[in-house]
Amino acid sequence: MSDIKIIKGVVAANCHPLGCKEQVRQQIKDVKNLPQINNAPKNVLVLGGSSGLGLASRISLAFGGRANTLNVSYERPPTESDTGTAGYHNNLAFQHFAKEEGLIAEDFIGDAFSLEMRTKVINYIRQNFGKIDCLVYSLATGIRPKPNGEGKWKSELKTIDSPFTGNFISFEPEMMLPVTLEPANNDEIEATVKVMGGEDWEEWVEVLKEADVLDTDFKTIAYSYIGSEVTYPVYFGGTLGKAKEHLHQTADLLDTKLSDINGHAYVAVCKAIVSKASVFIPGLSTYVLALMKELKERGEDETAIQHMHRIMQGYLYNPNGTPTDDQRLIRADNFELNPEVQNKIKEMIKNINSSNYKDPSVGDYEGYRKEFSQINGFEIEGVDYK
Ligand code: NAI
Asked: Residue by residue, what is the 3-state secondary structure of 177-245?
């Protein structure tokens, strides 16, 4: 097993299985030291639970609430010449630790958009859980197959009206360079909404409800990002934002549709986190360097597990009801959006450029780089890479 990580741009071509296992173990340890979820769900389906926010949600509910979990993710198993993806090893690690504690943990690897996967999941729920009382929807992908094999929708990372140039950070070769995003046409906007909007979430809930596998008081949650005026051109004001607006509307629609079983659907607006998906977004990387530095200095920087557990324990399963804003959104992005933090970020970003971006006095590049490395199982404390 090699301890050398192979990265192309912002894509990790390999991972370290032992590091992945240790990283999952540390998230479990961290969640056990946080306040537990008193009224946690019993049986949870996570779509996209092998990494990022989905994995942290799964760990929060299982080890901070003793829930059984079924996870669907799209990951590559190892072969003789390939380590496979980090998510694959995260799943194995999760199963190992969950089973040690007598929790049911099952993983289905495959396409969550397919009819076959829906059927497989429903059969599993019927046989093993009877019903589920929570669905976490945390898929992040660029492609969604159209029904009946009619091709694919492809999401586009573009602006809406005018071009925007933002800095993109590549880990290998290590450099920062400007990237211009062009405005999307209507077809591109529509395709992005199809891939990252709420339609598939709605279909999943409907199909599970029709199959009568949703318990009374069922809850479902999906994740959004709004950010601030700094990130607006590249995120909420762009194609991804259109998809997230659709996701927000879907939560309201589902909330109504679930009323007969006293069910609820929410979107949680999360903070920016370094993940396999988020490192691709130009403009966001320099913002995240500044954000991480500022939040760390204020003692308000949350890891993925701390953030998702706050959402589960403090919002979704808050015994006094789920606190939301006037748009019925869970606002876990409060530390990030604090005007003092945003003003500081605006000032810091003005000083970050391609020659100094690694300098700790301008932003937390080292933290950003290390977190990326860690999601692939490298640079994890306690692992003997030799
Ligand atoms: P991630 O890349 O770490 O995880 C994505 C998950 O989706 C993985 O488990 C992957 O296997 C799974 N997946 C992708 N395509 C699939 C398919 N066809 N079938 C089955 N599984 C599939 O992504 P991350 O960052 O955790 O994002 C999850 C959600 O959270 C997304 O909706 C994202 O927009 C949202 N979000 C992310 C933030 C961030 O800063 N990372 C901030 C706020 C929201």
From this structure: EEEEECECCHHHHHHHHHHHCCHHHHHHHHHHHHCCCEEEEEEEEEEECCCCCCCCCCCCCCHHHHHHH
* Cβ-contact 362, 349 below 8 angstroms: no
**CA of 52 relative to ligand 1 center, distance in Å:** 6
pTM strictly above 0.85: yes
| Exposure of 38 in the CB half-sphere (CA atoms within 13 A) | 6
Which residues does 238 contact at the CB level (< 8 Å), separation at least 6? Answer: 157, 158, 159, 160, 164, 181, 184
Q: Does ligand 1 lie within 6 Å of residue 155's CB atom?
A: no
Is the pLDDT assigned to residue 111 strictly greater than 80? yes
H or E stretch covering 108: strand 105-109
Q: Examine the pLDDT at 268 and tell me if it is beyond 60.
A: yes
CB 131, CB 263: distance < 8 Å: no
Q: Is 365:357 a contact under the CB 8 Å cutoff?
A: yes
- For residue 103, report the distance from its CA to the centre of ligand 1, in Å: 24
Residue 112 CB–ligand 1 contact under 6 Å: yes
pLDDT at position 195: 98
- In angstroms, the CA 54 to CA 64 distance is 15
Residue 164 to residues 135, 233, 234, Cα–Cα distance (Å): 36, 7, 7
Question: Per-residue confidence at 2, pLDDT binned at 50, 70, 90?
Answer: low
Tell me, using a 6 A CB cutoff, whether residue 52 lines ligand 1. yes
Q: What's the gap in Å between 291 CA and the centre of ligand 1?
A: 21
Question: All domains of the chain, ordered by start, with CATH?
Answer: 14-157+186-276+303-333 (3.40.50.720)
Task: Write out the catalytic residue numbers.
Answer: 235
